[in-house]
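User: quick one
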Amino acid sequence: MKNQWPLWEVFIRSQHGLAHRHVGSLHAPDATMAVNNARDVYTRRNEGVSIWVVKSIDITASHPDDKAELFDPAQAKVYRHPTFFPMPEEVKGL
Amino acid sequence: MYAQMVDTGSPSSMDERETRFQQRIDDGIRVEPQDWMPERYRKTLIRQISQHAHSEIVGQLPEGNWITRAPSLKRKAILLAKVQDEAGHGLYLYSAAETLGITRDQMVDDLHTGRAKYSSIFNYPTLTWADVGAIGWLVDGAAIMNQIPLCRCSYGPYARAMIRVCKEEAFHMRQGYDLMLSLCKGTPAQKAMAQDALNRWWWPSLMMFGPPDGDSVHSAQSQAWKIKLFTNDELRQKMVDQTVPQAEYLGLTVPDADLKWNAERGHYDYGDIDWEEFYNVVKGNGPCNRERLEVRNKAWTDGEWFRDALVAHADKQAQRAIAQAA
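Assistant: Done. Structure below.
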């Protein structure tokens, strides 16, 4: 197979004020073509007002095997949520 | 369906990892690309998703046949949008398949050399304008029936691609029914054209769901893996039940002398399907199998200079950026 085009991840911001969200991926020879293709593949129905493309190989991801190590500690820290603290009902504004 | 008779490989006894994998699926936990998965699951999904993608790509051809001859600018714009959607669906699905470790080039090559299959339905010709309506109404209708459950399938990237596809398929089905409705409200000749299209597309549409459950050897494994949520016959029955009243509203006759409502079952009974025809089309002997592959190959070869030019341009820009930085 010759010259397989690099894979790009596509992020679309649907409205002003919201964050870009990952919508999928596509192949393109360069960043300009990636944006052009993303427009045709992922925004045919007014899905977005802004497009980001990032080469897939440039993304560093956590590994599923590290899930426990990375995320379990947060489970023991329920006091980080406001609902942990019972508040007297008659006191307002909390 | 868009993926028919997908081979699930030969079963072996489950080792511990595989048992844990199955447990996760049973618990409704989605499988993501980096997760461990049995080799058979991976290979089966590659076959299923790539076959589905190929169907979307080849599916552009029967309808593309009518773009230049659409009867009005409005219908032409609608048909163009629909065919463009099919290309998009193919791309979402190719991307989903690539997360399982096959390259895009490999899949495209498999299609063009005839190693990969695509849905039998796209090997039938579009002889009249009414066929465009019948495809939207029946073929996309059957596709939706299969794809809505797949939005809940066990493999994350496939499920997410299906959600996007389903949103757009609803437009496809409706534009098809709208087209049929216009023809049926038109002149007797136009209505006859709609009836002729239904006559030719009805049985091939029912065949799309694949062989009867008794002959569907890989179904049980696919259902355990939750990459197939309903059996072929269940979906086919749903299709018949949904479509018969729609045909009645159009004033058209479904071409099946055995079709009748069964109050006891709460379903329509329907006649025998000519499975010999189905297997013949799958084997490559349908009316348009050869033509479809020839057209795909020609489009790919004719576009080669353009793809090469894009790469040359990208290389040149990259070289310039390096030179400027130095």
